[in-house]
């Protein structure tokens, strides 16, 4: 294993240029999916790395519950161990588990409260809350229930009919595309490794842009969606309304409006490597593959060496 066991911990540093290139040059749908997979895989590899460090670094410590054969001199020679790194990895791994658990708990709590707020309202795809505060959000489905669009009377009173259609189309894309799952995956990844935090911001923006583009295609007018986004952001400024699954942020509204006033982005399955979009995609794929291979190599090596040293 050697120093390669540490590689998945630092490879997420590539998230900074990946996030920048992806949100600027990739189609929003592609960027959303790519960032979610990159963040998830790198977070898993990073957490696995911490687990390996705990096993390798504490196998020689007195009082550990591991088999005695793991302290054999041949095992110590075959598996490099570092007691300092092993001991330090224990509280870090506990913090990662606690942070991810808290994020999942918060996610479930926000959804439960959002669904509880709809109790007594007609069972329709759009739930209108009698609230003067202007806000709207997409509520993901739960159990056997389909997702719903939640909007207040305050928001509806600020928009005309065309802008309402654009708003509803935007929120429907969030529900149909299950954007809350992508957002939750990146949120958990950022908790597992702080180096992945840039992907969280880029992912939120890409998901909003994805919904913007699909809404523009559905209503047949990019300008109508741009007006709806701009007006909704203006009237809801400072309103502490809920957001998608409690995690999504609306993103830089001026950038979203400017993108809608320009030409529609071109969707490519896999962009050429010599373009900016291709550079983002191939960098993300390469960094993730390298992280996964380093983790897998370390895990397999550790498994076979310790398995041979474990008494039957």
Could you explain the architecture of this structure?
The chain is globular, with a radius of gyration of 24 Å. Strand 2 and strand 3 (148-152) form a beta hairpin. The longest helix is centred in the N-terminal third of the chain and has 35 residues, at 83-117. The protein has 312 residues and is mostly helical. It is built from 12 helices and 3 strands, in the order αααααβββααααααα.
Give the gist of this structure.
This protein is mainly α and 312 residues long.
SSE arrangement:
Elements lengths: L6 H4 L4 H11 L2 H31 L14 H6 L4 H35 L8 E4 L6 E4 L8 E5 H4 L4 H16 L2 H14 L4 H23 L2 H14 L17 H9 L14 H34 L3
Helix pairs in contact: 2-3, 2-9, 2-12, 3-5, 3-8, 3-9, 3-12, 5-8, 7-9, 7-10, 8-9, 9-10, 10-11
Keyword list:
about 65% helix; three-stranded mixed beta sheet; about 300 residues; single chain; mainly alpha
The proportion of residues forming helix, as a percent range, comes to: 55-70%
Overall outline: globular
Radius of gyration: 24 Å
What is the tally of beta strands?
3
Strand order of the largest sheet: 1-3-2
Largest sheet: 3 strands, mixed
Uncertain runs are 243-248
Please report the distance between the alpha carbons of the first and last residues: 25 Å
What is the residue-mean pLDDT, rounded to a whole number?
Answer: 78
Structural class based on helices, strands and sheet pairing: mainly alpha
Strand content: under 5%
Please count the helical segments: 12
Encode the helix/strand succession as letters. Answer: HHHHHEEEHHHHHHH
């Amino acid at each position: 294993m050697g120093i390669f066991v540490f590689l998945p911990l630092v490879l997420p540093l590539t998230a900074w240029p990946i996030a920048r290139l992806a949100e600027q040059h990739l189609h929003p749908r592609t960027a959303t999916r790519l960032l979610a997979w990159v963040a998830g895989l790198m977070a898993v590899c990073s957490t696995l790395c911490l687990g390996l460090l705990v096993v390798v670094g504490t196998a020689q410590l007195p009082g550990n519950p591991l088999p005695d054969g793991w302290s054999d001199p041949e095992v110590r020679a075959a598996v490099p161990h570092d007691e300092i790194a092993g001991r330090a990895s224990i509280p870090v791994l506990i913090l990662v588990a606690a942070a991810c658990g808290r994020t999942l708990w918060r996610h479930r709590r926000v959804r439960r409260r959002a669904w509880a707020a709809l109790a007594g309202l007609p069972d329709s795809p759009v739930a209108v809350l009698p609230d003067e505060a202007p806000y709207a959000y997409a509520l993901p489905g739960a159990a056997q229930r389909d997702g719903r669009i939640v909007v207040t009377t305050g928001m509806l009173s600020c928009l005309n009919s065309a802008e309402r259609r654009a708003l509803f189309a935007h929120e429907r894309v969030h529900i149909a595309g299950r954007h809350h799952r992508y957002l939750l995956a990146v949120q958990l990844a950022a908790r597992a490794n702080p180096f992945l935090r840039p992907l969280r911001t880029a992912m939120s923006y890409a998901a909003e842009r994805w919904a913007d583009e699909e809404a523009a295609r559905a209503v047949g007018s990019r300008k109508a969606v741009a007006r709806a986004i701009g007006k909704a952001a203006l009237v809801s400024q400072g309103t502490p309304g809920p957001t998608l699954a409690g995690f999504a942020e609306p993103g830089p509204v001026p950038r979203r409006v400017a993108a809608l006033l320009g030409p529609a982005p071109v969707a490519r399955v896999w962009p050429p490597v010599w373009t900016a979009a291709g550079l983002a995609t191939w960098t993300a794929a390469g960094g993730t593959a390298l992280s996964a291979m380093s983790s897998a190599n370390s895990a397999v090596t550790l498994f076979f060496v310790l398995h041979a040293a474990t008494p039957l």
